[in-house]
Amino acid sequence: MSDTDDLTPAETRVWRAFPRGSSVDFRADGDEAPEPGDTWGAERTVRASVLRALLLRAPQEEGEIAALKITGARITGVLDLKYATVDAPVRLSHCHFDNAPDLYGAHLRQLNLSRSLLPGLTAATLRVEGVLRMTDCRVRGPVRLGGAQISGALFLERARFTAPDDSEPVLQLNQASIGDDLWAPEMRAHGQVRLTGAMVTGRINLQDAEFDRPGGTALDAQNLQVGGHVRARCLRARGRVELRGSRIAGRLDLLHARLSNPGDTALRASSSVIGELWLRGGPRVRGALNLRRSQIEILTLEPEMLPDQVHLGNLTYTVLAPHEPAERRLPMLERDGDRYEPYGYEQLTAAYRHVGDDDAARLVQLAKQRRRRAGLTWYGKVWGYVQDAAVGYGFRPLRAALWLLSLMTVGSIAYGMEHPRPVKADEAPEFNPVFYTLDLLLPVISFGQETAFAPESWYQWLSYGLILTGWILATTIVAGVTRTVSRQ
Question: HSE-up of 248 (CA within 13 Å, CB side)?
């Protein structure tokens, strides 16, 4: 005897309503979403096998559109629709499922499980021609939607996902294809959410969502492809947020986000292509930030949110916002490991030049040379310190003029007080302490004073010092100017 030969009064109501697409509401007045401790009498209980027979036999009534619409029922047994094709839309809202439905490989027109309580859901490679709704669902086991194809949108607003153990992700959407939006504001996931290789044609909304897997990967979205924006404002993540290799055409909005994974990486968006990345307004990221090898058109980074460890190797961006002085941007490059990597400095320089801030660009280049100096040999470091002190590696040319003026003043005063004796008294020109000092300092210019006079005692040592200093100063000026010109 089949299950349909002894239908209960509740099941008879469902069977009769189906051909006309009528709703059957088993709730008492004021009932909302089911609670784990709720009692469910026979008047609200429907066997899953009856629903399966109803959907597969699909009784029709002329002039009507069949649909399964049940609210507030307890569904016993396993709703087994593996590989089934169901033409009628299915809405099982405010329902309590004793067992996880098995929709593996099924082909449905539309599925609505809003506000229902489920022990899990097996629906890998599921095909839905319309919308899949799990709004306000509470699921206490893994939701397997890997490889699912949803032509419309997927709604997960305020859904709660937990699992009795951590053996697999609580929500699996790996390799899923969503033809519209993935809408999940205020979603809560206690365990890993997997979106690896998923494709979302529209937008993803994760505003006020919470991902909780301390010490592990809370959101695994490697190779995610999104045609629009990812709105993740006020997102809270305890554990790694993994976006390696993702492609986000619009904006990745992490305003006011709280990212925490101490001792490991909090956010990895390396090797990604992102239109805009917004990371500002929230507390400091707890854990490393990894943006290596990514391409971002507009990068909005607030210095206060950056953690102690950042990885920016080969990161490319056109605009860096908000506009901050170079002194506030340089620490993020200094936190990028102990190894000197010039690309980060060049990229930051290009960003400042893009907005016309040449002074900031020069400061970044100066910081680059100082960072490079730390890895040189001892004599390279000495020469670097000389260039830095003399002309700021060519980025502070006025410093050379100050050195020249100071040395010229010292020499002019010293030789003005004690004139050196002439080499040939009858041929020597009139002594001029200023031009004599300039003759010593400037190796390529001669005023005829140096060769005509010979200082004695400590004045002779002063002349040696001025000549040596002049050569060093001239060499550093040439090296610095050459470096500056080559950067233009």
Answer: 30
